[in-house]
Every structure is written in C-alpha cells, then in structure tokens.
Amino acid sequence: MTFRKCVVLVGVFSMTLFVGTLRAQTGKYSETASRTIDPMTTKGMVTSPNYLATQAGVDVLRAGGNAVDAAIAVASTLAVVYPQMCTLGGDNFWLIYNAKTGELRALNASGRAGEKATIDFYKSKGLSKIPSRGFLAANTVPGVVSGWDAAYRYAKESMGKSLPWARLFQSAVAYARDGFPVSPSLAYWEAINVNPNDQEFRNLQRFDAFSGMYLKPGGKAYTFGEVMKLPTLAATLETIATDGADAFYKGPIAKRIVAYLQQNGGMLTLDDFAKHTADWVEPIHVPYRNLVAYNFPPNTQGMASLEILNILNNFDVQKLGEGSADYYHLIVEATKEAFADRDRYLTDPAFSSIPLKDLLSAQHGKDQAARIDLKNAAKEVKPLDPKGDTIWLGVVDEQGNAVSLIQSIYHDFGSGIVAGDTGVLLQNRGSFFSLDPNHVNHLEPHKRTFHTLNPAMLLRDGKPYLVYGTMGGEGQPQTQAAIVTRIVDFGMTPQDAIAAPRWLHGRTWGASSNDLKLESRMSDAAVEELRRRGHPVKVVDAYTDTMGHAGAILIDPQTGVRFGATDPRGDGLAAGY
Question: Is 98 found in the same domain as 32?
C-alpha cells in the first residue's frame, strides 16, 4: 500500500511539473493528465515502436554514442524484431539536428527504380498495375543501409563521440542469431498474412524463402511470445557491421540478392545497386504559432503535413475544443485540401517540377482555409491510397543532437520476397508507381516514387522543441497534426497527445471510396455530429493498429528535460538514462 502511494505521488509530481512548464510557455494546460507518466531525463531519450529496439538505442547512448549512433542501433534492431514494418530491404528518411553547428539536415535514403523497370516491361506482361507482392513488386533498390552509412559518416565528422560502426549492430545481430520473443504486432501481421484464401495479397506462405525464414514448419505463423530466430539475417548484418555499406551495394550481399532476383524473373541489377546513393536535401518548413515546423521535401508527403499546419494557422484551434466535432472536422477538411495538392504534384523532383514555395506560402494556406466549410464535409474527394507500414523513431542525446527517422518497406512485409540466403526481405515501395505515362508519379528507370514517409520536428528559437512522427501511410500527416495541435494548442503532454483518440481519413484495402475512421473512445456526440456534417463515419476499435504507431520527444527549453512518449497501439517504449 505504501509503495502504491509513492508511485501515485511521483506521478502527480512529474505530471504537475510538466503541465506547469507548458502553462508557463503557452498559458494553457491539460486538465486531464494521463495515468501513463511521460518518461523524463536530462540526458538521452529514445522512443520507438518496439521495446527491444528502444533499449538498444539507450544502451548506445549510455556507452557514449551520439543520437545518430543510437538511431542506427534502434533502426537495425527494428529491421530484425519488427520485419512487418521495416527491414534491410526498405528505405529511410532522416531529419538530423546538429547541436554543435545549429543546423537541421535532411537525408533521403530512398531507392530508385531499376534500369529495367519500365512501363513497357510491365505492359508486355499484360499488367495494367504493378503487382503489390512478388518479384515484380521488388523493383527499387533498398536504401536503408545507405542511410545508416551516410548519417553515421556525417555524425562522426561533425558531432563527435561516435562509437565504432560495428558496435551499433550488436543488438541487431544478437537478436537475429539468438532469437527474440514475437511481439503482439508481429504476431498479428503474421496471422493475417498467412491466408490461403487470398491468393493475390495475403498469402505470403506461397513464397518459399519467406516461409522458410519468417514462418514455422508447415507455413504456420508464429504466435505472441514464441521465439523467432533469423540466422541468415544475422550473417548479413555481421557482414555489414564488419565490411560496411559497400558490402551491401557493391559486395557479396548485392551479388547474392541480384542473382536470386534474376533467377526468379526479377529486374534489379548489380549496376542498380552499385550506383545507388543516399542524398542530403534541404528540409522544408512553415511557421506554426510561435514555433517552426520542419519536415521532409519531395519525394515524400512532408509537404502535405506542413500544408495542414499552414491551413490551421488561419484558425483558433484552441477555441474549437480538443475532442470536439469542430476540432476533428477542421483537421479532416484541412487534410483534404493538402492531399489534393500532394496528389497533383508529388513525385521525384528530379523528374517533375513541384511549386513548393507557393504550396507552403502563407497566402496559399489562407486560400485553402477559405475553401473549408466549417459545417459541411467536402464531397469531391478522390479515393486515397491505403496505408503502408512503417516505423518512426526519435532520439535526443545529452548534447542536444536530435534525430527523427522513418524507415519502411511500404506494405506489411513488403513484397514478400526474401532474397535467398541473405535474409533480406525486400520492399514493394515501387508498386506505388503508376503505369499511366500521363500520371505525375509514373514509372521510369532510376526514378524515386512518391513516399508517404515524412519525419518531423518542431523548432523553437532554432532548437528542437518536439521530435515526432508516426507510421501509417495516409495517416501520417493527420496524426502529426493531432500531435502538434494537442501539444501546442491544448498544452497536452506528449503521452496524452499520442494516446488520445485518433482518426483516419482515407480508405482500406479492397475499398473503392474514402471513409472517416474514428476510434470508439470518441464521444457519441462528436461522432454523430460528424455524421450529420456529411462525413462517412466508421467507428473502429478503441486503440486500433490502423491509426499507426506514433512517438514523440519534447525538450523543455527552460530546463532541458526530455519528455518521451510512445503509442499504446504498438509494442513501443520511450526510455531515457
């Protein structure tokens, strides 16, 4: 009894301290504190959608590594223990704040389509759309390892305190070699992807290499708590740890991946791998209240995330009331405006001009805001693509360096193709290309496709205030808006902001039109009012995986305390030291 009283007192004290800080900054505070206490530290903080991965990052920080070192440790561990969301065969995007130089940099480590990936190639096979699974879906070079490599080199040169490259893979190698307990999320996605009645999409046991690596004998899915071992992936990770990224793109790993693909009708070549590069690009930004919101430029939908905030600048969001029908309605309508621009323009900027300056201008935000009817839902909206699967992770180290990182294989388990004995599960991001030559995102060799991935940061006086992001495809800009408005406009803690009921405007697999999915914890009054305004409402589970797995780290500018948060919808952990 005494112990329980102590826990409650500590929780009340820490929450009071936090909301007091927010009140001093914004004049507002949350009146309903979460029973989940935001973890706090004055040193390093890590948040990710898997508890084992988060601990790998904390271990690296404690050993003296910087934020980028820790992010690589987390990301490589996730590539082992969270293969339904990300693997070595996917892409990643980084926002990196350098506390020494005061600069925010963006790193695009997404892969380009192979030299043989053409519209004519697919049409010659009688296809009008790139398949979502199988060898023809794996048509872009994996960018993940190149992102780890470029970020590491940058941090080692400019941040200092870097640990040796090989040290960053210790946790990933150990879990792959010795095994790890299957998490609820991994068990769930395995179960629904071993479906003999879905021959086209969710019947992944039909791929022998996938079945041999990720399923039990007989093609059965692992269940929650069972131990999974991935020895071939452990060997590949050990090679990368020892020989660096070149082993993946120019050495034995690339040769084995390409040989396996070409034996099975795949199209990537050794030249595709050898010529791949990750690229440093300029982050994009808009003001939001007294802060500046930063995100990732095209080929990602970061522009849409910023457009939503740019529109909201024209409304008194606080006056609407968090959790009200007015609040949800406004952000959904702002999302429709932002997605209209995104779907018109977004592709690889090396292949098509995108008027970013105009799209992110204050005037464009005002024009978009003026088109929003606060009492009625907009009807003329094209169906939105279903969500993909992704991870977001955040790290802030003791020196103030910060990383917002997204890593993905697009659909759950990507293409379903494990490249032979390498253990590398390849993404299907290239299946998002259009085979219509008039579409802005049509397939071309060496082109990067439209990406839903967009890591985010809010800066205050030029320094990170909120490092945040989420998985969830179409839901990423919407959840980012929820996190920002709840923290900035309503003074909620990061944990409260992420745990609060969420929504998703879009569609799911097999659906031909959009709906508005609302978690069942929303008030009946708000749900009914949204229906009355013309939203096609669908009430879903209280903490559904459909809403994605979000995370955040808030840095108190007065005390330097880092507050971490993770999503109760996933298997995550926010932890500091």
Answer: no
Task: Clarify whether residues 129 and 83 are in a common domain.
Answer: yes
**Beta-ladder partners of 467:** 457, 553
The answer to whether the CB of 440 falls within 8 A of the CB of 347 is: yes
Closest CA to 130 of 433, 410, 473: 433
Shared domain for 127 and 152, answered yes or no, is yes
CB-CB neighbours of 407 under 10 Å: 32
- Please list the active-site residues: 390
CB atoms within 10 A of CB 568: 15
pTM above 0.85, yes or no: yes
Q: Report pLDDT digits (tens) over 21-60.
A: 343 333 333 444 445 567 999 999 999 999 999 999 999 9
3-state secondary structure of 564: strand
Structural domain boundaries, residue 8: 2-37
How far apart, in whole angstroms, are the C-alpha atoms of residue 451 and residue 434?
13
Which has the closest alpha carbon to 191: 205, 170, 178? Answer: 205
The DSSP code for 10 is: H
Provide the β-strand partners of residue 459: 292, 464
| Tens digits of residue pLDDT in 224-266 | 999 999 999 999 999 999 999 999 999 999 999 999 999 999 9
3-state secondary structure (DSSP) of residue 15: helix
